[in-house]
Amino acid sequence: MSSQTLAPESSSQPRYAAIKAHIRAQIESGEWPAHFRVPSENQLSQDFNVSRMTARRALSELTDEGVLMRSQGLGTFVAEPVAAGSLLEVRNIADEIAARGHSYSNRILTLEQTVANTEVARALGLTEGAAVYHSIIVHLDNGLPIQFEERYTNPTLVPEYLQQDFSAATPNEYLTRVAPLTEVDTTVEATGADEAVGKALEIKPGTACLQIWRRTKSSAGTVSFARLVHPGNRYRLGAQLRF
């Protein structure tokens, strides 16, 4: 890799940020595809006229954000562009996407008051036929749909749910703020996209998906019951346990 391909960025931003921006630009343009070996710390420090510590910070941050992956003894490579979430924590999907340096957006398909069927009533601790708030939102990463979110919310605990602008703040962000979590029940399963999910996620019906059922509780009671569906080839779940 010649130094001519690594043009320094504007001095108006920190040098490590200039290196990160350059690497992202190479990846997003397709010049550096998945598994491409990126220049070493030494090479980057020479090309950008910075210390190895500065170059190391750029590579480390991009690795932490899932843009790059390191292989001991082999170097640093472009990671597969697959969104990742954690099974052990409830994260705002907009934050997950932003952490990868990508652009978040969404499509609000449904925002209404309806009545709880047997399954929803049991999940929320309500009587069947009770009023509940219902929302369906598709979350996009750089314009690509990666999550179909269908959520039922307890109106007693979050009475202003339907008045929120969920194009500005996701349901997760809003609910975490007004009804802080104390307990979460999560179930993960493989499924095939039904017609509605397939249309929303721009995939064919029957496409393999990862489906997460999530019930969230606050100190006041059960807040919401959600179904989160991800295309199997666009999302993965991870967990890290320390003992």
- Distance from N terminus to C terminus (CA atoms, Å) equals 42 Å
Q: Output the number of helix runs.
A: 7
Order of helices and strands: HHHEEEHEHEEHEHEEE
Give the biggest beta sheet.
6 strands, antiparallel
User: Which percent bin holds the helix content?
Assistant: 25-40%
Give a short synopsis of this structure.
With about 240 residues, the chain is α+β, with helices and mostly antiparallel strands. About 25% of the residues lie in helices and about 35% in strands.
What's the helix and strand layout?
Blueprint: H1 15-28, H2 41-48, H3 52-64, E1 68-71, E2 75-78, E3 83-86, H4 93-99, E4 104-115, H5 118-124, E5 131-141, E6 144-153, H6 171-178, E7 183-192, H7 195-201, E8 208-218, E9 221-231, E10 235-238
Parallel strand pairs: 3-10
Antiparallel strand pairs: 1-2, 4-5, 5-6, 6-9, 7-8, 8-9
